[in-house]
Amino acid sequence: MTTFEKIQEIIVDQLDKEESEVQRSTNFREELEADSLDLFQIINDIEDEFDIKIESEEGLSTVEDLVKYVETQTEA
Amino acid sequence: MDTKTIIVTGSSRGIGKAIAEKFLREGHTVVINGRSELSEEAKTHYSSYKGTAHFIAGDVSDPTFAKALIKETKKQFKKIDVLVNNAGITRDNLIIRMSDEEFDATLNINLKGTFYTSREVAKVMLKQRAGHIINLSSVVGTVGNPGQANYAASKAGVIGLTKSLAKELAPRGVLSNAIAPGFIESDMTGELSEEVKEKALEAVPLSRLGKAEEVAELVGFLSDQHYITGQVFHVDGGMVMNG
After folding, report:
1. For B60-92, how does the pLDDT look when each residue is reduced to its tens digit (9 = 90+)?
2. The CATH number of the domain where A60 resides is what?
3. Which residues of B touch A14 (CB under 8 A)?
4. Which end of chain A is more exposed for a tag (fewer CB within 10 A), N or C?
């Protein structure tokens, strides 16, 4: 599973959406109507899945932002 | 009947024990927690009820343990319906004699312990879109008490924590309430001298000590309802009115 696929799965699960609705360019607040609790739960699941720490949700608005963030953290 | 999974911290004795026994009697699954490992005799006692008793010993003021407590419960029983934050200690002293250690130890278990377990269980309950967090405060947290600045501060803190949790978690159907017992027959009040007890009873309109079971009844009620959140319930024979 790629990083994107894992993140996609987490978001689909959390927001109860279809996979097709969660693409790299998808903005989760605007397009998926995620509220702050949703976002923190997604961040929390990503932290557990990848064993990383996401200090702030600032600058994270699309699925691609999350993928990139995780990739830089896991490469380090 | 729907079998619930319930964690009761500090349930090796006193009010926590009564709460655990109530749920076990009704056939629910209860995670019994105390700071030290229970004796085989005590384990046999808890295991004699209709419900399943599971034992996880450790100190909730240690965030690593609090996390493990929630994680193991979720892993074993797949869900957590109710968390009862009951673990608590007293380290009484008049303020001018109260040491940093006495203040910190009380805050660490009573308030920070409640925070640590609540934080971890909230992650599980938000996902479930259901759950109850029931925190044990105290009448002293509302009215204060000489010699208990640390205990009163910790129990007042629990009320603020409970109400904030209630607001934060309400959008996902997770409920949080506090119970503020008054003078309850327990090891904690058993340590008091007759003279102190008599004097304390003067402040109780119903003129008797409460029973741990009377607190447990309310915990049972709160964990069965779905429209009360962010409230503080005084189980104190009317004591808070004299505060």
Report:
1. 999 999 999 999 999 999 999 999 999 999 999
2. 1.10.1200.10
3. 127
4. C
